Amino acid sequence: MSSIPELFRHLTAGVYVIGVANGERRDAFTASAVMQVSFSPLLVALGISAAHESYTLLHEADGFAISVLSAQQQELAKHFGTQSGRTVDKLASTPWRPGVTGAPLLRDALAHFECRVVNDIEAGDHRLVLARVIDGAIARPNGQPMLYAQTGNLDGSESLYPATFS
Question: The whole model's pTM is what?
Answer without folding.
Answer: 0.86
